[in-house]
Amino acid sequence: MSPPSATSFTTDVVPQAPEDPLFGLMRAYRADQDPNKVDLGIGAYRDDNAKPWVLPVVKKADEVLRSDPDLNHEYAPIAGIPSFTSKAAELILGGADSPAIKEKRATSIQTISGTGAVHLGALFLSRFYPGTKKVYLSNPTWANHNQIFTNVGIPIAQYPYFSKETKGLDFEGMKSALLGAPDRSIILLHACAHNPTGVDPSLAQWKEIAAIMRQKSHFPFFDTAYQGFASGDLSKDNAAVRYFVEQGFELVVAQSFAKNFGLYGERAGCFHVVTSPAPDAENTITRIASQLAILQRSEISNPPLYGARIASTVMNDASLFAEWEDNLRTMSGRIISMRKALRSKLEELGTPGTWNHITDQIGMFSFTGLTEAQVLKIREDAHIYMTKNGRISMAGLNTKNVDYVAKAIDKVVREAQ
Prior knowledge:
Blueprint: H1 21-31, E1 38-39, H2 56-66, H3 82-93, H4 99-102, E2 106-112, H5 113-128, E3 135-139, H6 143-151, E4 156-160, E5 162-163, E6 168-169, H7 171-180, E7 186-190, H8 203-216, E8 219-224, H9 234-237, H10 239-246, E9 251-256, H11 258-261, E10 268-274, H12 281-299, H13 306-315, H14 318-349, H15 357-360, E11 365-367, H16 372-382, E12 384-385, E13 391-393, H17 402-415
Parallel strand pairs: 1-12, 3-4, 3-7, 7-8, 8-9
Antiparallel strand pairs: 2-10, 5-6, 9-10, 11-13
Helix pairs in contact: 2-13, 2-14, 3-13, 5-6, 7-8, 8-10, 14-17, 16-17
């Protein structure tokens, strides 16, 4: 029998997909041979020598695990390691005294980092949410949000978020869009250190957002990837989630431990569901947990162990937890110092425009306000790599390159005048 002459997967059936823009940027940076090249693209912490930093507390937790004679590599439960998921819930929901935890109306399931948590939440809502099956995403948002919700068949819409004029929050536009959305829509909210803009609502603004969502019966879907990394204060960075929980909202939270533990490749995350306070809340949350376990079983069966074990070891030991908080202050403090340095250098140079947004924004990323043409020009001329929308990873800046980056920004901005 002669072999088939043609594939079933022709170009019209399976077209060539575009390369992921961020990973394409990484590839281009690595191929660049210029000694002065600077990577401001990837969202991963780097120390002042532009090197990855393994948190000292992670090294200690690793030693604890390796010294445990009872350690094995058996399957984790479908819902994950209970010592990890319980502490993860306390961390984001407001402690062991959180009303959701005390009233037993929260359930948690370990996931493949924050991406897996968003996917599991989207999949759960696509199957079971009886309200308006449309998710509203901030404009802009983390690019992967669009694809995750589209993949599970939930239509996406946008609400205004970033103001190009002020380089801050378009709060009036956001509120107007939430008021105009159909009742019981799903609203995806970044809990802190908004990706990609670094612009967060104040607590007073969060309270206004909550009031509108209560009025419209919208469903909050929080994505939190930077708790403790944004401000250096775990409690400050979960203020929005904590407030919504205290107000009795039914909500879900996708939680990542990639950034705040430096466990990028270990894929440690958690997905939480909080149901509204009601006499049958405990029964409701039990049913929800059962369905989440079914979805998890059919997708990944059992979550990975190592990253969750590291995080669990730290979160369950008071001394290690305190050291983790100190490590978080180190990382966030360096980011804040780089924000101040970049702004200061640009203002010293008299770079056209205002640059206060560099220090007003928070977290790993900053929306510089550079245009796509300026981004491409700075890459060509100075070998500085950032995403086309002008977002930079502040972690890519250090005391050795911040002057160089500021001068390159100054040059492209002046040339555009």
